[in-house]
Write a structure and sequence with these properties.
Elements lengths: L2 E5 L3 H13 L3 E5 L2 H11 L3 E5 L7 H10 L6 E5 L4 H9 L4 E4 L4 H18 L9 E4 L2 E4 L4 E4 L2 E3 L3 H12 L7 H9 L8 H14 L9 E4 L3 E4 L1
Parallel strand pairs: 1-2, 1-3, 3-4, 4-5
Antiparallel strand pairs: 6-7, 7-8, 8-9, 10-11
Helix pairs in contact: 6-7, 6-8
Length: 229
């Protein structure tokens, strides 16, 4: 049974999310401040972390950055009351795999947890033995090692950024709408917060060395969506 760590300082949210995690077949543990949250990550080794942004002791951005700098690849979904795009981009920059803005639908949260866990397991399956390499210009993607290099330099991507890049690359030349990308990459069939896609595309471009106003790799097709050149 998968173990989920909730790092959240609002007891009512812990109770609500915890109840639904149990109902959906997960175990959960919780911490109400950032310092205890970090301690439980190392002690309990959860399969996924639900991480609030605004926390006493140590905020969500600090926790996310610290874990990634330590080499911890546990999937992280950030819970934030802030709708400011800067906060979302910072979360992705520090290594979060996804985010959901409060107030959120519990059903949507459960769907995102399931999708992130499934894709994390697929990308880290021990059955994979042969490296599969995708090359476009100076980008090289090793799908089995979960590594991306640009001009020979290793680029650190979050799980969702990596999946988005792989999907666009494997389907290069095809245009996908934001809702199609949510369905195919996030594994969630819904018409919802399509800005999630825009934020991931923007930061993925930045990591690949592509400016927003150029079509070096990922192209924006006005009124339609995105495609890999």
């Amino acid at each position: 049974m998968k173990k989920i760590l909730i790092i959240e300082d609002e007891p009512n949210i812990i109770e609500l999310v915890g109840y639904n995690l149990k109902t959906n077949g997960y175990n959960y543990i919780s911490a109400e401040d950032g310092i205890m949250g970090i301690t439980l990550v190392h002690k309990e080794k959860p399969d996924l972390i639900l991480l609030d942004l605004m926390l006493p002791g140590k905020n969500g951005h600090e926790i996310c950055r610290e874990l990634r700098e330590d080499g911890n690849k546990t999937p992280i979904i950030m819970l934030t009351a802030k709708s400011d795009e800067v906060d979302k981009i910072l979360g992705l920059e520090f290594g979060a795999d996804d985010y959901i803005t409060k107030p959120f639908s519990v059903r949507e949260l459960m769907a995102r947890i399931k999708a992130v866990l499934r894709r994390y397991e697929e990308n880290n399956s021990p059955e994979k033995t042969n490296d599969y390499i995708i090359r476009i210009d100076d980008i090289e993607i090793n799908t089995d090692r979960h590594e991306v290099t640009v001009a020979g330099k290793l680029v650190e991507l979050t799980l969702k950024e990596f999946e988005l890049l792989c999907f666009l690359t494997e389907n290069r030349g095809h245009v996908f709408s934001r809702n199609q990308l949510l369905d195919k990459v996030w594994g969630i069939d819904y018409v919802g917060e399509t800005r999630t896609v825009d934020v991931h595309i923007r930061y993925l471009r930045k990591k690949l060395g592509q400016d927003d106003n150029e079509d070096k790799y990922i192209q924006t097709i006005r009124g339609k969506g995105y495609k890999m050149k």
